[in-house]
Amino acid sequence: MLTPPLSSAAVDTAAIAARCAADAETRRQLDPDVVKAIVAAGFTRHFVPLSYDGQAGTFSELMRAVITVGEACAATAWCASVSASISRMAAAFLPAEGCQEIWADGPDVIVVGSVTPLGKAEPVAGGWLLSGRWPYISAVSFSDWALVCGLVHTGREPESKLFAIPRASYSIEDTWFNIGMQGTGSNTIVAEDVLVPTRRAFNRTDLFAGRAVEFPHTIEACYSAPLQAVNGLFFVIPALGAARGALESFSGYIGGKIRNAPTLPGVPGTQGNRTTYEMALARSAGEIDAAQLLLERATAIADQGAAVTSLETTQNLRDCSLAMDLLVTAVNRIFRTAGTTGQSSTGPLQRFWRDVNSISTHVAIQFEPAARAYASALLKV
């Protein structure tokens, strides 16, 4: 039986996510049915190796699917995208024995995580004792495994490593109360003296350089692309979907307003402001399209795997950050132009607006460091 393309399966996920979006904000995490839909669509298995019944998929296919879900709910798209990202890291860089342990029962495993070295690991016989706190772990309540980063102190310069730990090894603290992306349930992982064997750890430097383990299950291009060439994609693409959702909401609202609003004597009214609406609609749609074109090129570069050059890596960093800026500008204009009625707390536009602005604060998609890296690579300075 052939597995349907991820981008096709994502349509059903989007429908369920749209129905549950408001409730997810109240709950501060996704509905279990939404998580089941993410898994059923194939997001969690998208970058799992073929040898573990995964898809070893492409960044381009993931992008199409995440956009579809993001048009309905940015929080769902974010969790789907990030879970695919963390699974790719585990598949590409863990020793084969560690991968076998994670996907022993099949590819539909939810792996969450953080590459920020907030933990400490003490070397012991056969591995390390890991302790730490890692905040902002999206969808952590539904996780099967976590991939977290810690510093190993051996008397020399501390070394950063990523450690894969099963759900039974960590607790979760309820710390997610942000104004945007409320439904992601991005709470805090806490681990205390967790024994991690050597088969479930790898060096953070290998991750950033794209030095995947040399095993038959990692020959596909998706495993060898440098992290900095692909990392921003996982964060900005959900925002692209949300921006498209905001544009659709705005278009429907403004179209109805123009068609149905009465002409009131002595005031400009809707017809008097029609040019304002048309300008906002056209310019915002153009900026969102431009962002998508940038990201389509970035995913095509990422799909080259190890062939990605240093300049292309920094170009992707630049383009992800630039696309994010375009999306924020477009969505803010849409929100401003929608007016009081369009900004109703019961409507989807305010949620898209909050979510896109929240995503834009992520450290991986800031333009200034991306511009510096790109200029240094281009000018060789």
Structure description:
It is a single chain. 53% of the residues lie in helices and 15% in strands. With 381 residues, it is α+β, with helices and mostly antiparallel strands. The chain has three domains: 6-102, Orthogonal Bundle (Butyryl-Coa Dehydrogenase, subunit A, domain 1), CATH 1.10.540.10; 111-203, Butyryl-CoA Dehydrogenase, subunit A, domain 2; 227-379, Butyryl-CoA Dehydrogenase, subunit A, domain 3. It has a seven-stranded mixed β-sheet. A hairpin with a 2-residue loop joins strand 1 and strand 2. Helix 3 (59-70) packs antiparallel against helix 4 (74-93). The chain is globular, with a radius of gyration of 22 Å. The termini are far apart.
Q: What does the secondary structure layout of this molecule look like, with pairings?
A:
Blueprint lengths: L5 H22 L4 H10 L17 H12 L3 H20 L2 H7 L8 E14 L2 E11 L7 E8 L6 E8 L4 E3 L13 E11 L3 E3 H6 L17 H34 L8 H4 L1 H29 L7 H33 L6 H11 L7 H13 L2
Helix pairs in contact: 1-2, 1-3, 3-4, 3-7, 4-7, 7-9, 7-10, 7-11, 9-10, 10-11, 10-12
